Amino acid sequence: MNIDEALKKMRENSKKRKFVQTVDLIINLRDVDVKNPSNRFVLEIPLPAGRGKNVRVCVIGKSLAEVAKELADEVVDEKTLEKIEEDKKAIKKLVKRNDFFLTEPQLMARIGKSMGRFMGPRNKMPKPVPPQADIKSIIEKLKRSIRVVLKDSPLIQCPIGTEDMSDEDLKKNFEAVINAVIQKLPAGKQNIKSIYIKTTMGSPVKVDEL
């Protein structure tokens, strides 16, 4: 079935819950050697119709923190950073409650040393922001983006929205992710074995036609 039919079936098979469920995309790959570092990747893909929920962006920095204080969900200035760096629990909480991090290029090494072991495994290492960059545009883009990771197994799973979004919007997001992933695969579309969509608590529905 195509994506339109799959979305319809997904909704039919999904029971109403007491929370708004996420709609996930699952891509099974074939003939991709994930032991080869060149085949691994982390993508940040802007979704045309947005995430369907708030995405938290945290800015860590000196002058950058001042510029972003009205734009970011959380700002960590240098004084706050010094305190957090000495507190493992505070670092873990900071990493858990935010989806994306931005910082000044000169702080990348410092953050990597003090927080890298907590951010790295979650693929949340900060993105360096050049001094003259448009921080507002960067944050707005991240707030409608998802992170797609291909690492230890030939499987990709990521959100493409929420169940309260329209089928049309979910389809736009589905196509954006599929196209971005295909461009990164060594043999493109030929590396895709199967595709499924599902709600958080629902059963997977196979998409046969792209």
The CATH class label of the largest domain is: Alpha Beta
Question: In angstroms, what is the radius of gyration?
Answer: 19 Å
Fraction in beta strands: 15-25%
- What is the mean predicted local confidence, pLDDT? 94
Give helix % range.
25-40%
**Sheet with the most strands: spatial strand order:** 8-1-9-10
User: Do you know the CATH architecture of the largest domain?
Assistant: 2-Layer Sandwich
Distinct helical segment count: 7
Low-pLDDT parts are none
Structural features:
4-stranded antiparallel sheet, globular, 2 domains, Rossmann fold, alpha/beta, Ribulose 1,5 Bisphosphate Carboxylase/Oxygenase, 4-stranded parallel sheet
Please give a quick description of this structure.
The chain has seven helices and ten strands.
Structure write-up:
- The protein is α/β, with parallel strands linked by helices and 210 residues long.
- It folds into two domains: 3-52 and 145-206, Ribosomal protein L1/L10, rRNA-binding domain (Ribulose 1,5 Bisphosphate Carboxylase/Oxygenase); 57-142, Rossmann fold, CATH 3.40.50.790.
- The chain is built from seven helices and ten strands.
- The strands form three sheets. It has a four-stranded antiparallel β-sheet with strand order 8-1-9-10, covered by helices on one side.
- Helix 1 (3-13) packs across helix 7 (167-184).
- 25% of the residues are buried.
- The mean pLDDT is 94.
How is the topology of this model organized?
Layout: H1 3-13, E1 22-29, E2 41-46, E3 57-60, H2 63-68, E4 74-76, H3 78-84, H4 88-97, E5 100-103, H5 108-119, E6 127-128, H6 135-142, E7 145-150, E8 155-162, H7 167-184, E9 192-199, E10 205-206
Parallel strand pairs: 3-4, 3-5, 5-6
Antiparallel strand pairs: 1-8, 1-9, 2-7, 9-10
